[in-house]
Amino acid sequence: MHRNKIPEKKGTWMEEWHQKLHNNTTPDDVPICEAYLAFLRSNGDQGAYWSVLSNAGLTRSMLESYDRPIRTDPHFFPDKKASLIGEFENYLKILKAVHSGADLQASASAASGYVPGGAKGYLGYVLANSNGHEILPIVEASVEARAELAPVLRNSRDVLYLDLALETVVRSAAERGVGHAGPRAAALIAPLLQNLALSLGDNEEVCYCLKAWQDLPHSVRFGEGFGKDDALRAMAVIERVRRALASVSDYVSQTVGPVSQQFGQAFGCEPWAVTLFPEEVVRGGPAFAVSLVLSAAEPHFRQVAELGAWQIISPASCWGRLEVVPDLHGIQEKVYSEPTVLLVKHVSGEEEVPLGVVGVLSGDTCDVLAHLSVRSRNMHVLFATCYDASQLGDLEAMAGKMVACETTPAGSVKWREADAAEVAAHAAGARQAAARGPIRVNIPKWSGKWVVGMDGFQDGVVGAKSKNLAGLRGRLPDWISLPSSCTVPFSTFEEVLKRRENRGLAGDLAKAIKAVQPGDGAGLALARCRDLVMQTPVPEELQNALRQAMRDGGIPVPEGEQWNDAMWALKSVWASKYNDRAYVSTRKVGINFDDVRMAVLCQRIVPAQYAYVIHTTNPTNGDAGEIYCELVLGLGEAIVSGTVPGAALTFVARKDDMDNPRVLLYPSKSEGMFVDESLIFRSDSNGEDLEGYAGAGLYDSVTTATTVRRKVDYSSDPLMTDPEFRGRLMRDICRAGLAIEQALGSAQDVEGVVDREGKVTVVQTRPQM
């Protein structure tokens, strides 16, 4: 098509066949190609085309029944006849080679002396039935044969070629069988994941996915007769599988792409072919077959799970020009001159919403409690994730146009084209509603104390995290624990800078702060500020006061190198005042980033089996009568940092029915964050939880021991295997959230942990914004 300048235009025969071939080529493509050649040779005679198809047993209704249907008749290009005949004669050879099984027969014969006995029965079945209609047995037999061959792959090149031929049989069979399978395509997921694992060097994540799928009930694995809860469990596994497939695709593109580009240029290939080559390597590999089957089965799972195509993270209506961008991180400092709705390919959850943006739509998942999510709700910006590729495609087609978007009570997003006058009217109304004076930040003076215990957690001395913990003492049920804490007060770092020995550092820091200006150079200037903070020595008086306050509060005092780690963590929190995200966020609302003063809350890390985050008013719909919770293995940073993709165990409970929490999503994260028993130093600044501005999550909390990320297997955890345990734990967490809200008198954003014995501890709480 490219060589003959035939456009990829919807509603044309060649584009329809192109899409079928692209998605799932089958043996039917051989007679279709022969029919098109007959059409070309007869100067566009439709009768010749249909005669060949009829002789092959293909009818119009069969062509129209494909997953990518062929509904139109071929169009004749008189000026391209000779060229197209040559092109499709060559293409026919490729199709026959792919679908004849010749590679498999030849490879099996060449490798016969090396094939283990355990593989011979499976291989014999595949050789006899490789193009048969019973898809699942072919796939399973091919995969079992590959598993038997795996230990001897290095013995002979012929064995490797046989393994590759079997891999092709699996992919071809899956493509043939997926068209009308619908939810029953789920039966192919396990063998196709095993097939993918056999083809990868690093297959750890795919093996976790395979185990999680195999742990689902039989009805789910075969796509029939399952209920909502099982469908939700299946969707969690499917999300994890999709991330694994994306990683495989990225790896292949990144490794094959540069090499193929060099070859393509050296061989004089046309640029479009060079560009497409890595993508086609992915589409021709075992990962694509898994993706194809998931796409067939997922809609039914999503329907039964009552998930819909959208996840609303920040509900709102918006009007603006639609712009498509690859990611949010690279444009978070951009200022849009007109209201803009962004369609973003990738979000992590750590980013800021750029000025002028009124809506963020993405096909990428993001934690509801990640920084970007909280910031979007605080700014009344629409933020939603779409799981339907066709809807995302329709949205992308409107790039550059003015659009109106709104969330619906059913939990979806509706959009339409809008005119400029409508957008301008809503923009004017939004500016009027947002008109207000600059946000004021009171700069607290140093209290005169290097460290204060919980009895000294007062206004102007420490931040909201410290004060709220002190306010909860004696006001919670006995089964909810509070960690022992002490805090380095506001403006302590600034006091340290005033010391004679730090005059040079103070002068250098003042120059570095002055060098921070909007633009590309801000990041380097901020990094210089952080470096200077980390060079600042911690006075002996502060260190001694901190040791004493820790002893008084029952916090273990580290010694030697571990104490040095504690001082490094303390300075790291001070330095986080100068991180890029905080600078961007404060500048947007008119706050001078250098007016921030950092109190630092010190706590012993409670040994955690699980961590949770609670919003005592549901943040996705603003319902004050419903508590919203997320729970993960390991540390809560896996939820709030936005750096660990996938969903937490997400559940809600009505405040008048706390005995019956309801699961919204089962966990799909591939990794958790873990740390050995140690200390944590938490940011507790005066720039958090201001009136009209939520600064939560902008600044760092740092552990003295190294936080590590490692693979997690939720499918073997009691959260998934023991419904009674899961229900009890969800009830306890919801009740803890309600107790904290009642003690403090307002909606709260709560973080805490659960130890191996099920003991619930609250580590911090702040007013929910």
Automatic annotation (TrEMBL):
Coiled coil: none annotated. The keyword Transferase applies. Keywords: ATP-binding, Carbohydrate metabolism, Kinase, Magnesium, Metal-binding, Nucleotide-binding, Transferase. Its cofactor is Mg(2+). The keyword Magnesium applies. One of its GO terms (molecular function) is kinase activity. Residues 565-768 form the Pyruvate phosphate dikinase AMP/ATP-binding domain. It comes from the Eukaryota. InterPro entries: ATP_grasp_subdomain_1, GWD1_pHisD, PPDK_AMP/ATP-bd. Residues 309-422 form the Alpha-glucan water dikinase phosphohistidine-like domain. Belongs to the PEP-utilizing enzyme family. Homodimer. This is Uncharacterized protein. It comes from Chlorella variabilis (Green alga).
